[in-house]
Amino acid sequence: MSVLVGKKAPVFKAPAVIDGNTIVENFSLEEYLGKKYVVFFFYPADFTFVCPTELHAFQEKLGEFESRNTVVVACSTDSAVSHWKWLQTPKKEGGINGVTYPVVADHALTISMAYDVLAGEFDSDETTGDPLFVGSPEAYRGLFLIDKSGIVRHQVVNDMPLGRSVDEILRVIDALQFTEEYGEVCPANWHKGEKGLSATQEGIASYLSEK
């Protein structure tokens, strides 16, 4: 698994469903460069079980992300048409109707490979030399926090059965924006409104002495 933290987020253009209803052909995260922080997360598949709980959880906290100048973008290896159908399906039927942030279609698997979250890989048949795919053509639950310069500042990858904590993502955004504003670092379990510490021996000594 690649570590992308500190590196430029891989660039792509792909179909996506935006505003819960409209399919666009060349969606790109580049439109947010210099303007917004981006939470870009992968999920395994449409019309599954853990996935709708995550997509609705992000939607429920969308105002919290917006207040932090952050956009949320989802992605799976399903087609844009599959995304659109799922977005039209009511909650009570396992759908994600009501989700308004972009949902990217990585049907070619290239985005999942670029972010190194694909649960399989392309290989070739030993006998014929023909290309074949080994494993599952779905993405693990990868999540990447990208700053306004397009640099990945945080990533986490869960196995498919393990849902993520939206509150933890908000905490990490708060920590990043705190360090950018004040130049201090954030200790373990830091939350917005708490003190940071200076990255010096004196700073850590003072912080620990107060615990």
UniProtKB/TrEMBL annotation:
UniProt keyword Cytoplasm, yes or no: yes
Record key words, sorted: Cytoplasm, Disulfide bond, Oxidoreductase, Peroxidase, Redox-active center
All copies of domain Thioredoxin, residue ranges: 3-178
Chief location: cytoplasm
One CC-aspect GO term: cytosol
Superkingdom of the organism of origin: Bacteria
GO molecular function, one term: thioredoxin peroxidase activity
Enzyme active site: 51 (cysteine sulfenic acid (-soh) intermediate)
Coiled-coil stretches noted in the UniProt entry, renumbered to this chain: none
Keyword Disulfide bond: yes
PROSITE patterns the record matches: THIOREDOXIN_2
Location of this chain's protein in the cell: Cytoplasm
GO biological processes: cell redox homeostasis; cellular response to stress; hydrogen peroxide catabolic process; response to oxidative stress
Function (record text): Thiol-specific peroxidase that catalyzes the reduction of hydrogen peroxide and organic hydroperoxides to water and alcohols, respectively. Plays a role in cell protection against oxidative stress by detoxifying peroxides.
Family to which this protein belongs: Belongs to the peroxiredoxin family. AhpC/Prx1 subfamily.
The protein's name in its UniProt record: Thioredoxin peroxidase
Organism: Petrimonas mucosa
